[in-house]
Specification:
This protein is mainly β. 11% of the residues lie in helices and 33% in strands. It contains eight helices and 39 strands. It is globular. It starts with a helix and ends in a 41-residue tail after the last helix.
Length: 640
């Protein structure tokens, strides 16, 4: 049964007398809702909110936002007063609404509660505003009848730093489009400081939630202590669901354009679990994705530098030695002095790490393997794990950690600073590698034999560089600098032969690439030479969006049919670009505004409408910034 059809059937119960429907207390009704829907936080829309009993009860939960709609103007003020007294008004709101369409963007509410007659709101309209996996609930005989909205098959999650454990930063998401609508906007408005470490270290999403590591310390004075948190939000409406403290994270006065890039690999979310190091030298902990509560901690994983999860197994790259990262006194003469100094002193040390595998549920260790591991190089295929040991690519059997093969030497950048990591992508029977030395190559996954080598153009800016497999081709482009030609080339993964090649078809001011790498979806390459460019490689067309960008080091995340852009502290295009934490939707997946909404009045005239702000005979008041609606900036009053 389709969702609208199921809603029509469930809505028949709403024709029962309301005195019968509301026999249960508000607390009992909410408990019934939680039990039947599994709702643990997010946005609730109640259509027909009576005197606000359910809204007030929901307001007791800090991770719930709710909006009540009623056609009773008098009830609005009474409910507002009640919520104000309770202390939840703002997070819980109410408004008068009498239309058949709902004043919400698509895919917004986790729960839609319907307590109005069945013919009041069309079933399709109820389904439209409900998030994927969300629920529409109607009351019948004092109990909630629940119809759940299925998750579309053409949207994708982003569970690891580079989408998945295979290292290929490409979302299999057909709904991500060039941004035309705001889905939601979150805090903070700014990252802490442009010249210091980025305020957000990692961002992933699964199960309709996003998870990220953020410094919530003072935006006014970066020298004040950091307040690192692991934060969970609803992916479709931005409601903050829970937070966990991270007492000890990387030194937050780390200098400009110095990373650390590898921190993005310390957070993974798969299914109903979040895997994270809740501290720079803390072990890997599994958390309940809905509540943030600790499920288990994996032994001997202190100082873990990378987490990958696949097939109910957790893989880590763990430093067996304590992390040595003494704070330093920043050079007050200029931030670039710090960047040059620490870029040379605090890079990869080349010492041995432990590659560990654990049963994801029990936390029991399955195997361990000791080797030097180049930062950010561990990737997983169906049968094997792969990494670069500093000289060559090594393949481990995922069943027991034994070495399957070692390749011939594969060159890389001689020095690996904290802002950088190579690419190692597993694609079908091929490995793709680029190590920052203007070269890339492909290897056979079964034998380790090198298949081909080719030049690798510069990309990114003081960050990891670009390499991705989209539509069966290996893509990268010369997009690093102002004078870069911007030509994208797609190569055959097995032969290295260039199959596609095109340059930008737009004229604009190309700045250096933003301080993060490009990502992609199955339909678009997503560089950031000015803001975010949606490059349609089939039509060979660039869609320029200079008014939006991601945060330094991490960049953006395309998932859930949306483009997520974390807070930044960049001053480029300062007068036009968006700030804050933004979730952006494209035009194609938005439902067109109904004709009734187009014709409806946009403003409601209140009791003070038409009343002069000041007595025109006296005109001594100054009621607006520029004095009056004409912005005259002047007054006829006498000034002594």
């Amino acid at each position: 049964m389709s969702l609208p059809a199921a809603l029509r059937r469930a809505a028949l119960f709403a024709l029962l007398p309301f005195s019968c429907l509301w026999a249960a207390t508000p607390a009992e009704q909410v408990q019934d809702l939680l039990a039947k829907t599994g709702f643990s936080g997010g946005l609730v829309v109640q259509i027909g909110c009576g005197e606000g009993d359910l809204l007030a009860e929901l307001g007791q939960r800090e991770n719930v936002m709710a909006i009540g709609l009623t056609d009773d103007a008098g009830a609005v003020s009474r409910i507002q007063d009640r919520l104000l007294e309770q202390g939840s008004y703002g997070r819980i709101t109410v408004r008068q609404w009498q239309e058949s369409f709902l004043p919400f963007v698509d895919n917004l509410a986790n729960l839609v509660l319907v307590t109005v007659p069945a013919d009041r709101i069309p079933a399709e309209e109820l389904a439209r505003i409900t998030v994927p996996d969300g629920a529409v609930c109607t009351l019948a005989d004092g109990a909630w009848q629940v119809v759940r909205k299925p998750r579309p098959t053409d949207i994708d999650e982003w569970t690891h730093w580079l989408h998945g454990p295979d290292g290929n930063p490409v979302a299999q998401d057909d709904q991500v489009q060039p941004p035309r609508h705001l889905q939601w906007v979150g805090s903070p408005r700014w990252s802490r400081h442009h010249d210091r470490m980025a305020s957000m270290s990692a961002l992933v999403t699964t199960g309709g939630r996003i998870f990220y590591i953020m410094d919530e310390g003072s935006r006014a004075i970066v020298q004040l202590p950091p307040k690192w948190k692991l934060i969970a939000r609803d992916a479709f409406n931005g409601t903050i669901l829970w937070k966990r403290d991270i007492p000890n994270w990387h030194f937050h006065l780390w200098p400009l354009k110095s990373g650390p890039a590898d921190l993005a690999q310390r957070l993974v979310a798969v299914g109903d679990r979040v895997y994270v190091t809740l501290g720079l030298d803390a072990p890997v902990t599994a958390l309940d994705a809905a509540t943030g509560e600790t499920v288990c901690t994996y032994p001997d994983t202190a100082n873990t530098e990378c987490i990958l999860v696949a097939d109910s197994t957790v893989y880590t790259v763990t430093n067996p030695h304590p992390t040595v990262l003494d704070p330093y006194l920043p050079d007050r003469s200029g931030v670039w002095n710090d960047t040059r100094l620490l870029g040379k002193e605090r890079g990869w040390d080349g010492t041995a790490r432990l590659v560990l595998a654990f049963d994801a549920q029990s936390g029991q260790e399955r195997w361990r393997h000791e080797s030097a591991v180049v930062p950010m190089s561990l990737s997983l295929g169906p049968e094997r794990a792969y990494y670069h040991d500093g000289e060559r690519i090594v393949a481990l059997n995922r069943t027991d950690g034994s070495v399957a093969w070692q390749s011939e030497p594969v060159s890389r950048r001689a020095y690996i600073p904290r802002s950088f990591g190579p690419n190692l992508i597993v694609y079908q029977d091929t490995l793709l590698f680029s190590g920052g030395n203007r070269k890339m190559c492909a290897l056979d996954t079964k034998t380790g034999a090198i298949l081909w080598e080719a030049p690798h153009p510069p990309s990114g800016h003081s960050s990891q560089e670009d390499l991705m497999v989209v539509d069966g081709l290996v893509w990268c482009a010369n997009v690093a600098g102002t004078n870069s030609d911007g030509i994208w080339r797609g190569r055959d993964p097995r032969t290295g032969e260039v199959k596609r090649e095109f340059k930008p078809d737009v004229e604009t001011y190309w700045f250096h690439h933003r301080c993060y790498r490009s990502k992609a979806t199955r339909n678009f390459l997503l560089p950031s030479r000015t803001g975010i460019e949606f490059v349609d490689f089939r039509a060979e067309h660039w869609d320029i969006n200079h008014w939006v960008r991601g945060g330094c080091i991490y960049g953006i995340m395309p998932a859930n049919g949306l483009t997520y852009t974390p807070p930044h502290s960049c001053a480029c295009y300062l007068e036009t670009k968006l700030f804050g934490f933004n979730a952006l939707a494209g035009a194609k997946q938005r439902t067109p505004l109904p004709e009734a909404a187009r014709q409806a009045p946009r403003l409601v005239q209140g009791p003070a409408y038409g009343t002069p702000l000041a007595d025109p005979e006296i005109a001594t008041d100054w009621p607006a910034y520029r004095h009056d609606a004409e912005r005259s900036g002047s007054t006829v009053a006498s000034v002594g």
